[in-house]
Amino acid sequence: MFEKIDHIGIAVKDLDRALRFYRDQLGLELKEIEEVDEQKVKVAFVPVSESNLELLEPTDSSGPVGKFLAKKGEGFHHISFRVSDLEGKLKQLQEQGGELIDTEPRYGAGGAKIAFIHPRSTGGILIELCEH
Ligand code: CO
Hints:
The chain has helices at 15-25, 64-72, 86-95, 119-122; strands spanning 2-11, 32-36, 41-48, 51-58, 75-83, 106-107, 113-117, 127-131. The two termini are 13 Å apart. Strands 2-3-4-1-5-8-7-6 form an 8-stranded mixed β-sheet, with helices on both faces. It is of the alpha+beta class. The chain is 26% helix and 39% strand. It has a single domain, classed as 2,3-Dihydroxybiphenyl 1,2-Dioxygenase, domain 1, CATH 3.10.180. It is built from 4 helices and 8 strands, in the order βαβββαβαββαβ. The longest helix has 11 residues, at 15-25. It binds cobalt (II) ion. The site of cobalt (II) ion (CO) has 6 residues, from strand 1 and strand 5.
């Protein structure tokens, strides 16, 4: 059911500045940049072997990442697990009393189906499940 760690989401104020570290200094490759209007973010995908870093720069301070940055500053935002049956997993979590941010999958960057589990249910970590 769980296939891999798909990506790690990192909130940044300035994508260009973040890429100066991850790409230019660390030497990772930038795969692509995509704007996700629904989430009010610009997303840069930086592959690391089988997984990705997902660098998230808010395009508007009213979006979820904009609010996160204002409250907590830059840094780790979420971890995303790739699953083969997202809807089934969401249903199972709900039946077990898990607190979901998204009870139904929605579409995220790269056309993936995604859903978030609330940190209150996970011991403080925002967890995303995704299906490609
Ligand atoms: Co993500």
